[in-house]
Amino acid sequence: MDLWELFLSSIGPIALAGLTGTIPLALISFVFGLVLALGAALMRISEHRILSAVARVYISIIRGTPLLVQLFVIFYGLPSIGVVVDPWPSAIFAFSLNVGGYGAEVIRAAILSVPKGQWEAAYTAGMGRTRTLTRIILPQAARVSVPPLSNTFISLVKDTSLASLILVSELFRTAQQIAAFSYKFMVVYLTAALVYWVICLVLSLGQDALEKRLDRHVAR
Amino acid sequence: MSHADRQRAVRSSAPPLLTARELHKRFGDNEVLKGVDLTLYRGEVVVLIGPSGSGKTTVLRSLNGLETPDAGVLTLDGGPEIDFVTPPSKRTRFALRDRSAMVFQHHNLFPHLTVINNVIEGPLRVQRRPKDEVMAEARGLLARVGLSDKENAYPHELSGGQQQRVGIVRALALRPDLLLFDEPTSALDPELVGEVLIVIKELADEGWTMVVVTHELAFAREAADHVLFLDGGVVVEEGPPQQLFTAPAHERTRRFLTRIMRPLDGV
Predict the structure, then answer these.
(1) Backbone phi, then psi, for A151, in 5-degree steps?
(2) pTM of the model
(3) Which ipTM did the prediction report?
(4) Across the interface, which of B98, B111, B122 has its CB nearest the CB of A217?
(5) Do B108 and A120 touch (CB under 8 A)?
(6) Is the Cβ pair A123, B125 closer than 8 Å?
(7) Model pLDDT, residue B240
(8) How far is CA A18 from the centre of its chain?
(9) Per the structure, how many domains does chain A have?
(10) Which domain does A32 fall in, by range?
């Protein structure tokens, strides 16, 4: 088969696997991960020592161990203690935990980057800590965290290829299957790379648009 | 009522709005307050002056719970004594904040909210007053400081003087018993200082109770009923402005006043 034809015939299934596997996997994990990240960031900066310590340990474990190992512990490890999780939930679980750990540090730094005077102005207006956070601090921290969180998201999209190793039929696993049939590794894997690249390009454009939107109120 | 009349009237009338006794505060090795007393009557303007590091801002911030003194007693409007030997509860700190409002050196406006939303945030969401009333009052206050046309602007679109006037309006909208000003003009370009001081002076003349930390001695002389000169964490001297500025009793006060009014003399 001609290489160009192979490219044309493989890009369809690979892109489809991106749409049905990679993108939903990344999107769902990112949303759960952000919730975890926000929670962990708030725990980390709280004055409650135990909460803070728990968050610190969680972040340390996530950042200090390979994602692939985390994935294997959940998918291949947990069954040995009687917990069997399907490929998809395993992947979402692992990726969410991962985003949670990295995102927590991003959000913590963003919260700390908001000047102390903002807290004080809110307090003197009678606001409590929770209201100050939600109304005053987090909206400002959100702007600061867009670029680093976009990085996290883009990394996540690429990291979902690891899910092929726990049998999730996402983009890369589909590419592997096509390559195994055709033996044209170069073309097939370059096609896979191209699709990842296009997805990440779109995400970068989204990041730019979001930054512009959030920049409306801020002097630059 | 002339200034002197008002001053006589307040100092002699009923119990003080606020008394602070023997405030002590230490930041690490640095003892910034070494026993400061302050009495504030309703309708009175008290101005704190002194060199930087003298503790005047810390005194101000102790009055609304932004700082917690290590020792000392605070009484607000005949309420229970707050003895700082035991750290005050959250409720106590909130009670202090609810009675006062603060204008900051760096305005601390909320950059993501428009001018009007900066002003109504507290009255609407914390005090839960009706929106119509809050909006009308906020617009009235913006009009009186000449910023009616800026209500939908964002803080970064305003000049420093305008930002600080919004800061003042935001404080007034809370209807506090006590206004606290923390060096409200120190961060402004010199040509913008006047427009802010004029507003504060008007509020003083209207009978708002306020404590002002400032380096603007001319303003202190004009607007204050009572001036405290702090140095090294103690009140070195206090009294009505005429007395303190024209006939300071202490050498430290004299030196400070000279340094500010004639900065080139020592050169």
Answers:
(1) -55, -45
(2) 0.86
(3) 0.89
(4) B111
(5) yes
(6) no
(7) 93
(8) 16
(9) 1
(10) 3-217
